[in-house]
């Protein structure tokens, strides 16, 4: 078996960025649907909900706005996701490297989970404002009130209204979502990668279908952990200023009181439908870029 390549956080950074671009292209349409389902207004008595579910939301969006409607607000995640995934994979690489005594050390699954959690801390600084802008742009298209002409205009207006705090609204909830979910994400991927590697082979020689399967399943496990805090975060970030003075506790109380505990899994099918192809594309992009970088600069 070939000697494992030493962990390089820098290579992780560039390969992760490329994986992030692949993820956005594969997953953005279902992300738009997820946010619209999570933030749709509660129907009045006797009225039916704006969207009956994932497919209904997709159908109505296509009918009203065409294919471009599903890619609304994609500029923000492309600008944000590329560095964000670069930083995410860098954090994971760093987390692994910090726990190794020698470059050949194999890490245990709890250590991989801890390295993944570190990557979640790293990404929140970029993730929180990006998510706030994306959610506001996605819901304004659904409500028909155009307040922001694009991502930069949204940042300007938020800054004018309440300074930097307004742009970073929802940071604690983003941390609550991303730290445990990132741990689960990377641990599941590494576990499946090793499980799918044939006897006597190296995980670096894994076939494309196996990488796609491991990446897709990692996405599903990640979101199984992340959905409840994600629902709270979407609600909180798109709420009018001052609606929830005590932060996520108020959002949680209102949501459970009005719509029951099941509402914490709103948009579940849209998330799961998106999680598999988007993360399969992400990890495949990451592995391809990593192979290229190892060939280009084997000693970096």
From TrEMBL:
Pfam families the record matches: Mito_carr
Membrane topology: Multi-pass membrane protein
Keyword Repeat applies: yes
PROSITE patterns reported in the protein's UniProt record: SOLCAR
Protein name: Mitochondrial carnitine/acylcarnitine carrier protein
A GO-annotated cellular component: mitochondrial membrane
GO molecular function: O-acyl-L-carnitine transmembrane transporter activity
Function: Mediates the electroneutral exchange of acylcarnitines (O-acyl-(R)-carnitine or L-acylcarnitine) of different acyl chain lengths (ranging from O-acetyl-(R)-carnitine to long-chain O-acyl-(R)-carnitines) with free carnitine ((R)-carnitine or L-carnitine) across the mitochondrial inner membrane, via a ping-pong mechanism. Key player in the mitochondrial oxidation pathway, it translocates the fatty acids in the form of acylcarnitines into the mitochondrial matrix, where the carnitine palmitoyltransferase 2 (CPT-2) activates them to undergo fatty acid beta-oxidation.
Phosphoprotein keyword on record: no
Keywords assigned by UniProt, alphabetized: Membrane, Mitochondrion, Repeat, Transmembrane, Transmembrane helix, Transport
GO biological process: carnitine transmembrane transport; mitochondrial transport
PANTHER family: MITOCHONDRIAL BASIC AMINO ACIDS TRANSPORTER-RELATED (PTHR45624), MITOCHONDRIAL CARNITINE_ACYLCARNITINE CARRIER PROTEIN (PTHR45624:SF56)
Localization per Swiss-Prot or TrEMBL: Mitochondrion membrane
């Amino acid at each position: 078996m070939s000697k494992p390549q030493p962990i390089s956080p820098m290579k992780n950074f560039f390969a992760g960025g490329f994986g992030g671009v692949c993820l956005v292209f594969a997953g953005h349409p279902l992300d738009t649907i997820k946010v619209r389902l999570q933030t749709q207004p509660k129907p009045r008595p006797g009225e039916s909900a704006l969207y009956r579910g994932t497919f209904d939301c997709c159908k109505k969006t296509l009918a009203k706005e065409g294919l471009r409607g599903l890619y609304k607000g994609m500029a923000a995640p492309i600008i944000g996701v590329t560095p964000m995934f670069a930083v995410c994979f860098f954090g994971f690489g760093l987390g692994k490297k910090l726990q190794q005594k020698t470059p050949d050390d194999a890490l245990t699954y709890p250590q991989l989970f801890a390295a993944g959690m570190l990557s979640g801390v790293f990404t929140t600084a970029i993730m929180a404002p990006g998510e706030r802008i994306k959610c506001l742009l996605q819901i304004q298209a659904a409500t028909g009130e155009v307040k922001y002409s694009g991502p930069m205009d949204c940042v300007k207006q938020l800054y004018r209204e309440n300074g930097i705090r307004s742009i970073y609204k929802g940071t604690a909830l983003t941390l609550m979502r991303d730290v445990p979910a990132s741990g689960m994400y990377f641990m599941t991927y590494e576990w499946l990668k090793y499980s799918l590697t044939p006897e006597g082979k190296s995980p670096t020689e894994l076939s494309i279908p196996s990488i796609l399967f491991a990446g897709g399943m990692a996405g599903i496990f990640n979101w199984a952990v992340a959905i409840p805090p994600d629902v709270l975060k979407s609600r909180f970030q798109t709420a009018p200023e001052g609606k929830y003075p005590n932060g996520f506790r108020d959002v949680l109380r209102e949501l459970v009181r009005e719509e029951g505990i099941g509402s914490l899994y709103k948009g579940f099918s849209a998330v799961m439908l998106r999680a598999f192809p988007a993360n399969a594309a992400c990890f495949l992009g990451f592995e391809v870029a990593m192979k290229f970088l190892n060939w280009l600069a084997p000693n970096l």
